[in-house]
Amino acid sequence: MSVDEEQLERYRRQMRFAPLGDEGQRRLLVARVLVCGCGALGSVAADLLVRAGVG
């Protein structure tokens, strides 16, 4: 999967984080996560996952 310009700009700072890098961000973009049974905490966790670029 290629990273388009919008995604590159959005996630540029975390891609500079050495342990993550470009390849790690690509893996996050194609990852899928199921959040269930967490109540209010689940909505916060889901929001943070989306902001990090998961899926």
Question: Major sheet: size, sense and barrel closure?
Answer: none
Contiguous uncertain segments of 5+ residues: none
Structural domain tally: 1
Number of DSSP strand runs:
0
Q: Mean pLDDT, as a whole number?
A: 85
Task: Count helical runs.
Answer: 4
Helix content percent band? 55-70%
Secondary-structure content class: mainly alpha
**Could you give the distance between the termini?**
12 Å
- What share of residues are in beta strands? under 5%
SSE arrangement, N to C: HHHH
Whole-number radius of gyration?
12 Å
Q: Quick one: overall form?
A: elongated
Search tags:
single chain; 55 residues; mainly alpha; 4 helices
Can you tell me about this structure?
- It is a single chain.
- This protein has 55 residues and is an all-alpha fold.
- The protein has one domain.
- The protein has 4 helices and no strands.
- The longest helix is centred in the last third of the chain and has 13 residues, at 40-52.
- The chain is elongated and about 35 Å long.
- The model has no long low-confidence stretch (mean pLDDT 85).
